[in-house]
Design a protein that fits this description.
The chain is 33% helix and 25% strand. By secondary structure, it is of the alpha+beta class. The strands form two sheets. A seven-stranded antiparallel β-sheet has the order 1-6-5-3-7-9-8, sandwiched between helices. A hairpin with a 4-residue loop joins strand 5 and strand 6. Helix 1 packs across helix 6, helix 3 runs antiparallel to helix 7 and helix 5 packs across helix 6.
Length: 209
């Protein structure tokens, strides 16, 4: 079981990530064929370049106009992506928010939060084993201001697009990942210290198989 996290607040710190690759050696057909939900991981650490590639696959910018890897209704981009790092070379344990426009992460809180997060996610062992956990959350107001109540449905679709991108990228990197949707909303919100408008949609543990 991971040690209890130190939850001291850190000064906001931006960490520039390695540039993503656009020319992988595995075909899209191959990763579609090989994609599986994987919830058992080894103790091997992830590299910060892998974190960067996964973040880009889920929410990265793909052109000067600000388009991203996943479609969003009206181009309003209701999602936020956080990285809960635990065993990542070059990235101290803690919570980070991914900033797509600058391809960097902002350090929010330090410490290994896997134990607390697993408790919030009904003690699912994938959380405690993972080298990192990604969070996809939504701010519904970004999209509901234009689309009303239906905007919430669009945000959920957007999360599905981004999550699938993430899973396929994980396969291309030789990593295992699984989507976790069963968790105590309020507990996850509290452990990860999300903003009042943030709604957690997916936890995605990832690691070496």
């Amino acid at each position: 079981m991971p040690s209890v996290a130190r939850k001291a607040e850190l000064p906001s710190k931006e960490i520039k990530l390695p540039e993503p690759r656009f020319d992988g050696t595995v075909s899209i057909e191959k990763v579609l064929c090989d994609r599986r939900s994987v919830s058992d991981y080894s103790n091997a650490a992830l590299e910060v370049a892998q974190i960067a590639q996964l973040a880009w696959a889920a929410q990265g910018v793909t052109g000067a106009a600000g388009h991203r890897t996943a479609p969003s209704a009206g181009g309003l981009y209701a999602l936020d992506l956080h990285v809960i790092a635990a065993n990542v070379q070059g990235l101290p344990a803690g919570i980070y928010k991914y900033e797509p426009l600058t391809h960097e992460v902002v350090s929010l809180t330090e410490g290994d939060l896997r134990g607390q997060l697993a408790h919030a996610a009904l003690e699912q062992p994938a959380i405690t084993q993972a080298a990192a956990i990604f969070l996809l959350s939504a701010v519904y107001a970004r999209i509901s201001e234009k689309y009303g109540e239906r905007g919430i449905r669009y945000a959920h679709k957007e999360a599905g697009h981004a999550a699938q991108n993430f899973l396929l990228q994980a396969v291309a990197l030789g990593l295992g990942a699984v989507l976790v949707g069963a968790f105590d909303d309020a507990a996850v919100h509290r452990v990860l210290r999300l903003g009042k408008a943030d709604v957690a949609l997916y936890l995605i543990p990832i690691g070496h198989t």
